[in-house]
Amino acid sequence: MTPLIDVMLVLLVIFIMASPLLPRQIGLELPKASLAPQAARGADETPPPVVSLSIDAAGRLQWNGADIDATALSARMHAAASADPQPQIALRADQRTPYARIAQVMAVAQREGLTRFGFVVDSPASAGAAPK
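The structure assignment produced for this chain is given below.
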């Protein structure tokens, strides 16, 4: 009887160890979508303009390379949100920029009604050096 209990306990331990490895997926049939956004646009439609918004490590802002303050940022974002087509904001933030400053800028963009907002990052290949 004791060897049978030992075998059962070993099997139980193996089952407990292997259960997190079992796939827990739901069978879904996802909708198909085209990966070519240009094909969906009309031939006469132009892509939206891109505005470069930069934040340095000290939290200073630049709009397309020109220094601006928080008041001017809100005014420019309001004007950009009401433009047709609405421009895409490309946010470039120094890696040492406090997250709170980035969140403030994003909150202003949301409050002013900007919907096209993206982050610009450098890949290790484009930076010319491997990450340390």
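Interim note for the steering committee: Residues 2-18 form the longest helix (17 residues). Residues 53-121 form one domain.
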